[in-house]
Amino acid sequence: MEILDEKVQLWIDSARFAKPKPAVYVLYDRKLNVLYIGHSQNLQEQFTKDLDSSFEGDECKQKCHSYQKLFIENPEQKQNELLEQYKSEHGSFPPCNES
Predict the structure, then answer these.
(1) 54-61 long-range contacts, Cβ below 8 Å, gap at least 24?
(2) Are strands 9-10 and 23-28 parallel, antiparallel or unpaired?
(3) Residue 99 confidence (pLDDT)
(4) 78, 39 in Cβ contact below 8 A?
(5) Could you give all domains of the chain from N- to C-terminal order, each with its CATH number?
(6) Assign residue 55 a region: left if phi > 0, alpha if psi is -120 to 50, beta otherwise?
(7) What letter would DSSP give residue 91?
(8) What is the pLDDT of residue 11?
(9) What is the mean pLDDT of each run of 10 residues along the chain (99 residues)?
(10) Model pTM?
């Protein structure tokens, strides 16, 4: 289930090339099930940290296979909207947002 209208990209192949801009992002597993909906004021910095650590200590996010991103001025507000939309459709938040 893709949440954003943006193209789904493979995590390892392209995450390191994210731009240093504010963004909301969605992490997916291999079957395109939503794992996590997040935001960052600097997506390049966030993704570089995540790639370098391989989501150390976060077994849920370690299942990440692909992602979508949307560069936006107020990513935290968009994240909250996406989380509420997801919860209303599925009855709960994505698994990695619940922990």
Answers:
(1) 58/96, 58/99, 60/35, 60/36, 60/95, 60/96, 60/99, 61/27, 61/35, 61/36, 61/96
(2) unpaired
(3) 62
(4) yes
(5) 9-93 (3.40.1440.10)
(6) left
(7) S
(8) 94
(9) 86 92 97 97 96 92 96 97 96 91
(10) 0.93
Q: Is the Cβ–Cβ distance between 86 and 80 less than 8 Å?
A: no
Place of tokens 């079957």: 31
Residue 22 token pair: 């504010």
Q: Where are the alpha helices (DSSP H) in 1-99?
A: 11-14, 43-53, 75-90, 95-98
User: What backbone torsions phi and psi does residue 40 show, to the nearest 5 degrees?
Assistant: -155, 145
| Environment class of 11 (CB within 10 Å of its CB; exposed 0-12, middle 13-18, buried 19+) | middle
